[in-house]
Amino acid sequence: MEEREVTFIVKRFYRNEWREDRYEFKAVRGMTVLDGLFHIRDNIDPSLSFRASCRMGICGSCGMVINGKAMLACSTQIFDLGTDVVRIEPLRNMEALKDLISDFDDFFEKHRRVKPYLIRKEEKSIEEGEYIQTPDELRKYRQYSLCIKCGLCYDACSITGSNKEYLGPAALASACRFIMDSRDQGEDERIPLVSDHTGCWRCHFMAECSEVCPKEVDPADAIQKLKRKALIYSLKRLFRR
Amino acid sequence: MEEMHTKKVLEPVWWFFQIITGILLLVLVSLHLYVTHFASEKALDYSSVIGRLSSPGFKVLYAVLLLAVVYHGINGMRAIFLDLTMSDVTKRIVNILSLIVALLLFGYGVYLLANIG
Ligand code: HEM
Ligand code: SF4
Ligand code: SF4
Ligand code: FES
Predict the structure, then answer these.
(1) Interval A183-239: pLDDT, tens
(2) For site-directed labelling of A209, which of A127, B48, B58, B76 has its Cα 20 to 30 A away?
(3) Residues from chain A contacting residue B16 (CB–CB below 8 Å)
């Protein structure tokens, strides 16, 4: 089996202090960056902290910055990185808690703010049956529903870095997911939320969020759709008065 | 239910005007560059400049170009300032200052257009 000596340089945070540790070990073909971190924790340094759960790119826990780019550690092959020296940092644009573990409170708070659930003006009773949706209606939002809340886009977005109040790509994609859903009737609540100074007008469509997104949610595209929706909504409001 | 205030209703409209003025700039700046650099060798002589600025057609064209540039530039700068973390008071200051600067620039330009030639 193909083996190679690799060096992980890990940016670590503990008790308000940053430091960098170097770990050298033999990696084999097939090993992911997450496997490497487990190897270090099990064999070299048990104090190294990181988050992971599913190891298959679906739980969204293992987001980190690998050689400068936000990626899922479990979905990144060490041998695919094209270098034997791998630099690993916690996600930026979030507070570090310990080592590679970042504080997602703000990220999830913003997600909560866009009301990520179906809103109905009048509920149907169970006897009346389901809310029927055609495949075409499903396709309008399906892509945006694939988000695993990994926070990679939050790291990549420079506006998230410059404006603490900006809702950010993931929350806005989530808002879009519900606004585009034919069963949802929450437009009057959600559009004003995403259309103020902290919402979609902060996005300038550099699309770095979509570049790093592991699930091809394409939040940048979702936000441009929100801008159009907000414009149409506003024009309707202006001319109805 | 959250009421959509006039300010929020207008925010998408400002964005729409940013795109409209952007397209307008593409057309008018190309026209302006064509007239001043390609149409004739003497286009930038004092007499030609004054000649153009005396014609009502050019006056209107330049007023529209000025309006588009001022709106697009100032609203664009406003968007960039608002990208920083700031308090509601500072946001208001940015909005009001943008409006004042835009009005001053446009007013001064129209004043010159009206009085030249
Ligand atoms: C060739 C003509 C131009 C076109 C087609 C154009 C187009 C645009 C568009 C579509 C936007 C909106 C971007 C967004 O939604 O975020 C924009 C933003 C902006 N434009 Fe222009 N523009 C032009 C010329 C200019 C010029 C000459 C200036 C400088 C005076 C300028 C300065 C800006 C600024 C500062 C922004 C805000 C940046 C942002 O929101 O991302 N533009 N432009
Ligand atoms: S496209 Fe918008 S949300 Fe995505 S990184 Fe750029 S500014 Fe941020
Ligand atoms: S939009 Fe993509 S990058 Fe952002 S949190 Fe969702 S899955 Fe992750
Ligand atoms: S461990 Fe679940 S996405 Fe990586």
Answers:
(1) 999 999 999 999 989 999 999 999 999 999 999 999 999 999 999 999 999 999 888
(2) B76
(3) 231
Greatest CA separation for chain A: 72
Q: Would an 8 Å CB–CB cutoff place B56 in contact with chain A?
A: no
The CATH code of the domain at A3-102 is: 3.10.20.30
Whether A101 is in the pocket of ligand 4, judged by its Cβ within 6 Å, is no
Average pLDDT, integer, range A5-25: 97
Q: What is the pLDDT of residues B24-75, one digit of tens each?
A: 999 999 999 999 999 888 888 999 999 999 999 999 999 999 999 999 999 9
Confirm whether the ipTM is greater than 0.90.
Answer: no
The CA-based dihedral angle spanning residues A125, A127, A133, A134, taken in that order and rounded to the nearest 10 degrees: -160
d(CA A21, CA B79): 41
A152 lines ligand 4 (CB under 6 A): no
- Chain B residues with beta carbon closer than 8 angstroms to that of A196: 8, 11
Instruction: Tell me which fold the domain A105-240 belongs to.
Output: Fumarate Reductase Iron-sulfur Protein; Chain B, domain 2 (1.10.1060)
Query: Which chain A residue has its CA at the smallest distance from B12's CA?
Result: A231
User: Would you call B54 helix, strand, or coil by DSSP?
Assistant: helix
Closest-CA residue to A233 (of A181, A198, A186, A197) = A186
Q: Which residue of B has its CA nearest to A236?
A: B9
Give the Cα separation of B76 and A25 in Å (integer): 51
Q: Compute and round to an integer the Cα radius of gyration of chain B.
A: 18
Question: Which of A110, A191, A197, A227 is the best residue to mutate to test the B interface, defined by the most B CB atoms within 10 Å of its own CB?
Answer: A197
Query: In chain A, what are the domain boundaries?
Result: 3-102, 105-240
Which one-letter DSSP state was computed for residue A200? G
